[in-house]
Amino acid sequence: MKFAKRADKIDSSFVREILKLASNSDIISFAGGLPNPNLFPSQAFRKASEDILSNPKMAQIALQYGESAGFYALREEIAKTYKQKDNLDIDPDLIIITTGSQQALDLIAKIFINKNDTVLLESPTYLAAIQTFQFYEPKFDTISLTETGPNINELEPKSGKLFYTIPNFQNPSGVTWNTNTRKFVADWAYKKNVIIIEDDPYGEIRFSGKRQPTLKSFNDDVILLGSFSKILAPGLRLGWIIAPNKDWFDKLILAKQASDLHSSQFTQLITWKFYKDFDSQKHIKELSNFYSKQKELLIKEIEAHIPEISLNNPEGGMFLWGELPIGYDSVELLKIAIEQRVAFVPGIPFYINDIKDNTMRLNFSNSSLQDIKDGVKRLKRSVDIYKGQNSL
Amino acid sequence: MKFAKRADKIDSSFVREILKLASNSDIISFAGGLPNPNLFPSQAFRKASEDILSNPKMAQIALQYGESAGFYALREEIAKTYKQKDNLDIDPDLIIITTGSQQALDLIAKIFINKNDTVLLESPTYLAAIQTFQFYEPKFDTISLTETGPNINELEPKSGKLFYTIPNFQNPSGVTWNTNTRKFVADWAYKKNVIIIEDDPYGEIRFSGKRQPTLKSFNDDVILLGSFSKILAPGLRLGWIIAPNKDWFDKLILAKQASDLHSSQFTQLITWKFYKDFDSQKHIKELSNFYSKQKELLIKEIEAHIPEISLNNPEGGMFLWGELPIGYDSVELLKIAIEQRVAFVPGIPFYINDIKDNTMRLNFSNSSLQDIKDGVKRLKRSVDIYKGQNSL
Q: In chain A, whose CA is at the least distance from the CA of B44?
């Protein structure tokens, strides 16, 4: 066999195969993790792009090779935003622009994970993170997620090299950690010498409630990640890493250089120009208001029509987490749902162990209000058919 | 120590440190590997970008998540170009768009290199490739490069997992393999079960002579790489892999998903629109004509003023390779050159072993004709000072 051992073990994800079916245009999909394309600030980008490409000097910067750490003025905008939102002092010299925050996971794995190192995960967790880490052949250990964050009693005795977390509006569960859990985990990590990856692509998409402090604010060694994919547009492929110190920054830069030299300079300049010339906070607020309405409607419709699904009610993000009664199999339900032209993601792929096969992830950001109503009708029919088939 | 073993061994490259010095604006630099920013088709990109972002449907595609393999219409344009230039039938379904061809090297390494696998390299070779491979901890073995390609007699008894090659206008040496060497190496690889990486970022930048057939045309299992960085603009961060078969394609896609999900959808659409609406071949011809003049002048000036440097004369690309008399140390010369406000890259970092420390790489694409004249004057002064200091 030609493939390296690390690659040989990895196969295409089950969910991706389902998503292929769900991309059929007559299916109403609560399955994807897509932001709503109607809310992309495309006219602002149009103006930004025109401004850059009509200015010969800016155009040359946008189109030439750039720094591996990214366009400095964009890194300054990122630092500024943390100051405004979290009163967090971030040194732009420790920020690395990545090709989406997916790449951040790969770079961190590349410089930290030895074969058989333990990577701790929330259970459930973001499945593409699992896939990224798998290439570096770690062992995984999991901590159950509760409504307020990872179960502290379960976590306390554990140890590992890295703990991968999504403390705000987690994908898939929508869970946000409360402040006490943040403090506890940050202290625990410090004592146990565990590196925390704080992945935060959704934190700015908050509908209600109070913004929680970052884990980084309790523990300087936390590696904080962010992304423009959900708040602006994923097609830019831009995220960032905040390295805790120069030593880690330097290693991450070596990994970045080896991986793709640097991220698209062109989309970096457009994003910088957007932050400079437009009201990014207003945009994020509008987007949050819209997503909030979508979430409210999806909850309302499901509660009214499908009592079998019990939902949580996240204060932001893009996902709801649903639980069917014990004994229900959400993969079997999905097969019926696809026939009924509606899709969601069963919980299974988000678990490494202790799989709860009665769970499901429901995305609300990428469906119109009408589609949410119609989609829930179809989902209700699917549940009824499932119950009939299984004599429930 | 926290870092993974693979990362612990890797340090910042010596050349990057020098390039930092050379980025000072009063230094005339033959050191970089930058395309000439005055030749970026920025007005065509401006039109393409405006066309895309003013069309709501196109804008949504450009800004949303996309396929991991890349935007299909762009992959079709790439396939079409191979048909036109090389009469090569490439299946767009086997093309993967990468975040520059640097990422292609990383993805290939990720799926093929086990620790201690042998990677064969031309000597000298592209130093960022060495750095990318190093993260996967292979053993390296090298084959000396002659004027017509790798030394066949040296190659014949060797074996390995991968052979990394740049058969056209190689970075750093400018060498282009002749047809016989291509045939020989392609057959040898087939017999020895060695995977050839045919990295071809410069092949289209030909000033004179006849385009050589691809290695892939002699051996179907060759992995052929291309890039828009040198023919259009590196700031787009777009290159591609042509996978030899579906099996390898599928594994590369898994690695791509794990690495950054997909490359910038926005710059992919702009590039596709450029190929569709503009005469890309005319652009490449103009660029080649300009680079050709720069090369001719650099050769003429050095031959006229610095007889100590003997140069080759590549028929394309961006680099000349210079040799100083045996006993000269090009790193020492560089230190003087920097003081004289001129820079080049000493040969050392391009070698793994059998280092020729009297060699140098000279880039001609990124200097104006006036800068080439002035730069050679400064380089001559540097050589004179070096000779004086070393009593040569």
A: A53
The distance between the two most distant Cα atoms of chain A, rounded to a whole number of Å, is 70
Instruction: Answer yes or no: do B167 and B232 share one domain.
Output: yes
Mean pLDDT of B273-289: 97
Residue percentage of chain A with pLDDT more than 90: 91
Interface touch A260/B11, C-beta < 8 Å: no
**Residue located via tokens 């230190």:** B335
Task: Report A:310-369 residues touching B (Cβ under 8 A).
Answer: none
Reported confidence tier of residue A67, pLDDT bands at 50, 70, 90? very high
Q: What is the mean pLDDT of residues A22-48?
A: 92
| B376 Cβ neighbours under 8 A, 6+ residues apart | B298, B301, B302, B305, B306
pTM for this prediction: 0.96
Domain check: are A182 and A315 in the same one? Answer: no
Do the Cβ atoms of A7 and B260 come within 8 Å?
no
Q: Which domain holds residue A326?
A: 5-40+281-389
A58 and A166 assigned to the same domain: yes
**pLDDT at site B6:** 83
In angstroms, the first-to-last Cα distance of chain B is 47
Same-domain status, B217 and B352: no
User: In this complex, how many residue pairs, one in chain A and one in chain B, have their CB atoms less than 8 Å apart?
Assistant: 244
| Beta pairing partners, B120 | B141, B163
User: Are both A356 and A267 inside the same structural domain?
Assistant: no
A window 37-96, beta carbon within 8 A of B: 37-38, 40, 42-43, 45-46, 49-50, 53-54, 56, 59-66
Q: Which residues of B touch A16 (CB under 8 A)?
A: 257
Domain count, chain B: 2
* Pair B199, B166: CB distance under 8 Å: yes
Whole-angstrom Cα distance, residue A35 to residue A33? 7
CA distance B379 to chain A (A): 25
**Whether A285 and A274 share a structural domain:** no
Q: Is A146 exposed, middle or buried (0-12, 13-18, 19+ CB in 10 A)?
A: middle
Encoded tokens for B312: 């080759």
Cross-chain residue pair A255–B56, CB shorter than 8 Å: no
Give residue-wise pLDDT tens across range A283-335: 999 999 999 999 999 999 999 999 999 999 999 999 999 999 999 999 999 99
Domain boundary among A259, A278, A297: A278
Q: Give B-chain residues touching A106 at CB under 8 angstroms.
A: 258-260
> Which residues from chain B sit within 8 angstroms of residue A23, using beta carbons?
none
CA distance B387 to chain A (A): 35
CATH number at residue B380: 3.90.1150.10
Q: How confident is the model at residue A141 (pLDDT cuts 50, 70, 90)?
A: very high
Does residue B253 have a pLDDT over 80?
A: yes
Average pLDDT value for residue range B233-256: 97
Contact in structure between A268 and A238 (CB atoms under 8 Å): yes
Domain identity same for A150 and A137: yes
Q: Are residues A109 and A81 in the same domain?
A: yes
Q: Inter-chain contact B111–A4, Cβ cutoff 8 Å?
A: yes
Residue A49 is part of a domain; what is its CATH number? 3.40.640.10
Amino acid at residue number B347 = G
Of A244, A259, A278, the one marking the end of a domain is A278
Q: Which one, of A327, A233, A326, lies nearest residue A271 by Cα?
A: A233
Helix H or strand E encompassing A381: helix A369-389
Which pLDDT tens digit goes with each residue over A15-24? 566 667 766 7
A42, B53: Cβ pair inside 8 Å? yes
